[in-house]
Structures are given as structure tokens and as C-alpha cells.
Amino acid sequence: MLKMGKEGKGPAEIGRVIRDLYGIPSIQALCGKSINQILFDNGIKREYPEDIINLIKRAVNMREHLRTNRSDKHNRTKLIHVESKIARLAKYYTRTGVLPADWKYDPETAALLVK
After folding, report:
1. What is the pTM of this model?
2. How far apart are the C-alpha atoms of 92 and 71, rounded to whole Å?
């Protein structure tokens, strides 16, 4: 698990591999800690939480799609939904201290963040 964490794999991917290859359905039930806590205790800390990074990647891909397909109204609506989720998560993570207090979501800098 630590080896995969050092390779840059996220907690969800690590959990999926452990479940599929080793038949362990829940690390938390086995160890009493989540994968995030185990990685953090061993000095492997990610700069941003995995869920907000995945949402930012999705929003960047949606914006790229909208550049070429301007009339895709469904995608435009869903982009608003994804960016709302990002704002809610950012509010939660700034309140809990995971993200800096002055962190804001900006689509231009987000594209640089995930690439």
C-alpha cells in the first residue's frame, strides 16, 4: 500500500487494487484506519484531496469540450453542477484546514493544476 502511495496512486485506486487482487474489502475494518490516514502517518501527503482533484479534472475536460461544441447545453448545465460541487468541497476543506484559507477555484489555474 505504501509502495503504491509513493508511486502517486490515490487512496481510491489503492483500495480498488487491494480489494481486487488481495480480496480485502475494507482496509478500515482490517487496520482501524483509512487509507488516507495510513498514508499520512507514513509521510505520504498529497497537496490536494483526491475528490476535489477528480472534480477539477472533470471540469477542465468539460470546458475543453465546450470550446469545440458551443451549443452543448446539457454539458454547460453539468459544468455548472460540477463547479458547484468544487465550491462546496473547497468551502469544507478550507474550514477544516486541508486547503489554505485563501484558496479559490479558478478555471484557468485549475487547468494548470491537473496537467
Report:
1. 0.82
2. 33
Q: Helix/strand/coil (H, E, C) string of 55-68? A: HHHHHHHHHHHHHH
CB-based contacts of 92, cutoff 8 Å, min separation 6: none
d(CA 109, CA 103): 11
CATH 1.10.287.10 for the 50-114 domain, yes or no: yes
CA distance linking residue 63 with residue 102, whole number of Å: 24
Give all strands (DSSP E) within the chain, no chain letters. Answer: none
Query: In order along the chain (115 residues), what is the average pLDDT of each group of 10 residues?
Result: 87 92 91 90 88 94 95 96 96 94 90 82
Domain ranges of the chain: 2-41, 50-114
Distance (Å, rounded) from C-alpha 1 to C-alpha 13?
Answer: 10
